[in-house]
Design brief:
By secondary structure, this protein is mainly alpha-helical. 64% of the residues lie in helices and 0% in strands. It has 4 helices and no strands. Helix 1 packs across helix 4, helix 2 packs across helix 3 and helix 3 crosses helix 4. The longest helix is centred in the last third of the chain and has 17 residues. The chain is globular and about 30 Å long. It starts with a helix and ends with a helix.
Length: 73
Amino acid sequence: EKLLFRIIRAAFNQRRKTLVNALSSAMGEITKEQAEKAVEKCGFDARIRGEALDIGSFVKIADEIYSIINSDL
């Protein structure tokens, strides 16, 4: 749940950025390449902006990022 809210905040704190760029700059745990991989694995274009997503989409992306973070441990 905490990760989901961090992702949503990152997406809306930097609205003019793509979601991938917003995530990679706001979250130190993932690289830009990992953020891009997570977004694309959820079926979205890497150029999508946060305001184009609904809550269910953010949940999918949060789950994917959670998997990426925990696979590196």
